[in-house]
Amino acid sequence: MEEKIAVYPGTFDPITNGHLDIVDRALDLFDKVIIAIAINPKKDPIFSLDERIGMIEKCYQAGDSRVQIDPIGGLLVDYAHKRHAKAIIRGLRAVSDFDYEFQLALMNRKLEREVDTVFLMAGFRWIYISSSIIKDAARHGGNVHDLVPAHVEQMLKRKFGHS
Fold first, then answer.
1. How does pLDDT run across 9-51, given as a tens digit for each residue?
2. Other CB atoms closer than 10 Å to residue 53's CB: what's the count?
3. Superfamily of domain 5-127
4. Strand order in the sheet with 32-38
5. Ramachandran quadrant class, 62 (left: phi over 0; alpha: psi -120 to 50; beta: rest)
6. Is 130 annotated in the active site?
7. Nearest-5° angle of CA 38, CA 12, CA 75?
8. Is 93 a catalytic residue?
9. Nearest one of 43, 50, 16, 24 to 133, comparing CA atoms
10. Is residue 65 annotated as a catalytic residue, yes or no?
11. Among this protein's residues, is 131 annotated catalytic?
12. Active-site option among 43, 82, 113, 140
């Protein structure tokens, strides 16, 4: 029986509890989830690629073989096809997310018919958060304790000089 693989792309700068919720729920649907850390020259992440990989690895330190972490550049749908993924996972928080994501899903489908897009709604308790909002709060000394894993919270505090 063929393994059902999904790719969950993002910058993950930093990874949030909302991201982890999406991964956990995707694992209910797929045999393996590849967390694909986008290398996007148009974005200027505060954490290096190695730091972002390390943050995510620490979330799955029990060695969950069903979760793989991979930095990617180039066209996501090509990467997904090469990895034999059946789907690209996209998390949605609001209707405004859907409009943009729907356009991407249609383009990806046009480029590669064998890869579908699966939309997962953010868990209610995470619907209002994003990495950008969390970084902004942390930058100004705000409490992000319940929004990110503890090790990510510590890295944010160090990054912004609030240790």
1. 999 999 999 999 999 999 999 999 999 999 888 888 999 999 9
2. 17
3. HUPs (3.40.50.620)
4. 67-72, 32-38, 5-10, 87-92, 116-121
5. alpha
6. no
7. 15
8. yes
9. 16
10. no
11. yes
12. 43
